[in-house]
Write a structure and sequence with these properties.
Blueprint (H helix, E strand, L loop, with lengths): L3 H13 L2 H8 L3 H15 L4 E4 L2 E4 L1 H26 L6 E7 L1 H18 L3 E7 L2 H9 L5 E7 L10 E16 L19 E4 L5 H12 L5 E5 L3 H9 L5 E4 L10 E19 L5 H14 L3
Parallel strand pairs: 3-4, 3-5, 7-8
Antiparallel strand pairs: 1-2, 5-10, 6-9, 6-10
Length: 298
């Protein structure tokens, strides 16, 4: 492994043609440059400089290594620039996770605008359940999350996680159009005591919120279908197989044959952005600003 400082010294001599000029560029003495190159010769097992008139010139081995040194120095300079730019510029990786309905409703427009404005930003996105993704956020594997918190069952978060509410929306019961209650202006969950339900997997926020909402109305849930995606739940609803609780962002796309009926008393869901305390990099802040502007109709 060659020292970066020694490669810089070789690169400077190759560029400027003498030890003295290389020393001025590197802000060290000519003897310091000479010592760096002597150590590099011992590391490589090759003579890199040879006398030439009153000065020195690169040997063939020196020219070969100098070509590599030029690329290494350029890459190191670019790395130093990027790290310095991180204080102000929006660049590099931004790892986003979130629940599918929120990602679908919010992220396409936000990221299209954000990446057009900041082409050096490298965004990756993956969907999943908040219960699985919050530990990855706290572990530093993700930078930003879109999570949901149902107001009848607020989502608990560990210390060190910051949140901002992006949207609050109504939750409705999805019923087949032929269901006896489908034409109602509102429905009390107590009226659905004999209904089979579709829900996201146990332990997820939608599942637990549904269970709590039903039990608060004296109904013991009959969880017949465990379906991660709302689109799949709605397909089952359309065929008269089940009912589902569906927030506003997840109501499209919707197959024919489904009616959304507001719940009485109302149910609501918040969509929140979450990030680590101290993890609000310029890229995270820019994404939060874009999400907030989108939520305000920007």
């Amino acid at each position: 492994m060659f020292s970066a400082d020694r490669l810089r010294a070789l690169h400077a001599v190759a560029q400027h043609g003498s030890l003295a000029r290389a020393a001025r560029v590197l802000h060290i003495t000519p003897s310091g440059v000479s010592q760096q190159l002597a150590k590099l010769e011992r590391e490589t097992g090759h003579t890199l400089l040879e006398p030439h008139g009153r000065g020195v010139r690169l040997t063939h081995a020196g020219r070969v290594l100098a070509g590599h040194a030029a690329r290494v120095v350029a890459q190191l300079t670019a790395a130093e620039t990027d790290l310095a730019d991180l204080r102000d510029e929006i660049l590099g990786p931004l790892r986003i996770g979130g629940v599918g309905s929120s990602l679908r409703a919010l992220m396409p427009d936000v990221l299209a605008t954000l990446t057009a404005a900041h082409p050096r930003l490298q965004v990756t996105v993956e969907d999943g359940e908040a219960v699985d993704m919050v530990p990855r956020l706290t572990a530093g594997e993700l930078d930003l999350l879109l999570i949901e918190s149902w107001l009848n069952r607020p989502m608990p978060l560990p210390e060190g996680v910051r949140v901002a509410t992006l949207a609050e929306e109504d939750v409705s019961v999805a019923l087949a159009t032929g269901h006896p209650l489908a034409d109602r202006a509102t429905v009390d969950l107590a009226e659905l005591g004999d209904t089979a339900w579709a829900a996201c997997p146990a332990g997820t926020e939608p599942h637990e919120a549904l269970v709590q909402a039903l039990r608060s109305r004296g109904v013991e849930p009959r969880m017949r279908y465990t379906l991660t995606e709302y689109a799949t739940q709605l397909a089952f609803v359309a065929r008269g197989l089940t009912a589902a609780l569906v927030p506003g962002m997840a109501q499209t796309p919707c197959p024919p044959g489904v009616r959304f009926v507001p719940v009485d008393p109302p149910l609501r869901r918040e969509v929140r952005a979450a990030w680590r305390a101290g993890g609000d990099s310029p890229s995270v802040r820019a994404c939060l600003a874009a999400l907030s502007a989108h939520g305000d109709g920007g």
